[in-house]
Structures are given as C-alpha cells and as structure tokens.
Amino acid sequence: MKGFFDLFVLSYKEIFSPRKDHRSIYNMAVCAMLIALSMAVESLSVTLPFGKVNFAFIPLAAIGMLFGPSVSIFAGAICDILGFLVKPNGAFLPIYTLIGAFQGLIYGLVLYRRWGDLYSDQAKGRLFGMNVTQLAVRIIIARLIDVLIVNMLMNTAANIHYGFIPPQSLSVIISGRLLKNLLELLADLPLMLTILPAILTVYSRVIGGRKVAAGTK
Q1: How many angstroms separate the CA atoms of 41 and 100, rounded?
Q2: In whole numbers, what is the pLDDT of the chain averaged over residues?
Q3: Span 76-90, pLDDT tens digits
Q4: Does some domain include residue 34?
Q5: Torsion angle defined by CA atoms of residues 137, 158, 89 and 69, in that order, rounded to the nearest 10 degrees
Q6: Fewer C-beta within 10 Å: the chain N or C terminus?
Q7: The domain that contains 169 carries what CATH number?
Q8: Where are the alpha helices (DSSP H) in the chain?
Q9: For the segment 105-132, what is each residue's pLDDT rounded down to a tens digit?
Q10: Coil, helix or strand for 157?
C-alpha cells in the first residue's frame, strides 16, 4: 500500500520538485506540449452515430507514462475542458471532465515508472530499466482498461444518462460501440507500441537520465 501512495508522491515531484533544478520546469513544458498535441489530435476526430474516433488519448497516455498519476489525472481533466472550449458541442457537462481525469489516472497508474539510465540499460538489451516486453504488456493492459472501463462503461453510461443514446436504439448503439472499439484496438495498439517508446527515447535524451523509482531494484 505504501508503494501505491509513493507512486503519487513521485508523480507530484515530477512537476513540483523540491530540488532546485530545472527538471520540473522542463517536465511542465513537456506536459503542456503533450496536452496541446492531444487538443490538435482531438480537433481531427470523426464523429460517428455510435461514438467518436480519435487518437487524442495517446498524448495523455504519454503524460501518464512520463509523469505519473498525480499529473495525468489533472491532464485528463484539462484536456476535456480545453477540448470543449476549442470545439464546443452543446452544454458543458462536468461528468465528462471527471471521466477524462479517470482516463488519465489509468495511464498514470499502469505506465508510470522512474526510468533508469537509457544508454547503460539499452546496452544490456533493456529500455529505461524495464524490459521492452514488460513495457509493451503495460501499454496493452492500460489501453484495454481504458476501452473497457472508460469507453464502454463510463462514457456509455453518461451518454445514456444525458439522452445521447436513445433507449429504443440502446442495443444497436452499444453493439456499434463495441465493434468500433474492437476495430480501433487494431490501430490503437500498434500506434501506442511504436509512439510511446519513441517518446520515452526522446524524453530521456533531452531531459537526461533518471533514477529508478524507490522500491524497484
């Protein structure tokens, strides 16, 4: 349990570091750029009768992976609010902001680690202190949790509550959303498995080597 709460403390220090260095400023800038990228991708989304197709979750997943749940939970909420301001569609509904925050929390909890030195670990056939296979498994798990809990359950329940899904077409819409999410996974996972390790590589080279998290050996 202590390790679970330590994760939030470490994540908080990514942006609000007590050390007198520029790392937290750099991290804040990277986080802001990823939020802006998420907004840019969101603006290119396509709305279908049974849902919206976009890849704006990938920058949010990168925030969770780099900076942890304390940062990604707020980033998820900010992405939803800014998305509404940039492309409003009806009234502002805070429930979707909470869902966005929960989505960020998922990626922060599943993907976040304090990565080890890139070059020495890479020389040993490992990526940032974590086996590449383990990283891939975490990415797959995070996306599956996001799809099942956020997309299929939470968003569907909110859409039903607000009347966006008419009761008479509930089964058709849910079947369509299920098919949409299954098909999206075929594109989502290869993109995430390619883009997220690339972001880690760039981040490590720009920001510098990082120490392994407390509790990891």
Answers
A1: 15
A2: 80
A3: 999 999 888 877 777
A4: yes
A5: -40
A6: C
A7: 1.10.1760.20
A8: 2-15, 23-42, 57-67, 69-86, 94-111, 118-123, 132-145, 156-161, 170-207
A9: 999 999 997 644 444 444 454 555 556 7
A10: helix
